[in-house]
Design goal:
The protein is built from nine helices and two strands; from the N terminus they run H-H-H-H-H-H-H-E-H-H-E. The protein is an all-alpha fold. Strands 1-2 form a two-stranded antiparallel sheet. About 25% of the residues are buried.
Length: about 200
């Protein structure tokens, strides 16, 4: 392996951890597996992270940061509307990636019940998600794409609560609660508070 600075090696380990978590889940993200994938010694990982909890929490936060960066890049495209971005935030667009992010978030939540480090990561990620939703709503309103029946900060929390609840139901794979039903409920939820000014 070529020489990497301390920060570069730490980032490389984190990115490898995110790749594993995204494809196999956080529980599969063992130090030994990360070392194997990153082609580095287990001791190198322990030198950069004080515990497996710290590594998992930082990897989870990096995955959220990457997802929100993709959302931001999508928002820069001229053909992308703010309403489309709101749908993406409710996991109704880019289904495959959305499912992975959703399941990863649920897994992190379960870990947070008995892991304070992951709990703090979940709190940080939720605030990041809320901030992104507020920005999308404000942009849609300022560009006269739509009107919102609630203050944007309040509705952003409503969206997060809706997503947690209905997405959880979908992940349970309850008979009769299909992907199409989830999308239908999400669309109805958005339209109950968002009034489009033009056809989107």
């Amino acid at each position: 392996m070529s020489y990497l600075s301390h920060d570069e090696r730490r980032q490389m380990i984190l990115e490898t951890a995110v790749k594993i978590a995204f494809s196999e889940g956080l529980t599969a993200m063992t130090v030994r597996k990360i070392a194997q994938e990153a082609q580095c010694a287990v001791g190198q990982i322990h030198r950069h992270f004080s515990s497996a909890s710290e590594l998992k929490a930082e990897a989870f936060l990096l995955s959220v940061t990457q997802a929100l960066s993709l959302l931001n890049e999508e928002g820069k495209k001229e053909e992308t509307t703010s309403y489309q971005l709101l749908n993406w935030c409710l996991f109704t667009a880019h289904e495959d990636d959305a499912r992975h992010y959703s399941l990863l978030w649920k897994e992190a939540e379960v870990m947070s019940y008995h892991d304070d480090i992951m709990m703090n990561a979940i709190k940080t990620a939720t605030m990041m998600w809320h901030s992104s939703l507020v920005s999308i709503l404000e942009k849609g309103i300022s560009q006269q794409e739509f009107e919102c029946a609630k203050p944007v900060a309040t509705f952003a929390w409503d969206m997060i609560a809706f997503s947690h609840g209905f997405d959880g139901l979908y992940n349970l794979k309850i008979e009769g609660f299909s992907e199409n039903m989830y999308i239908e409920h999400a669309s109805r939820f958005l339209k109950s508070y968002i009034t489009l000014k033009d056809t989107v």
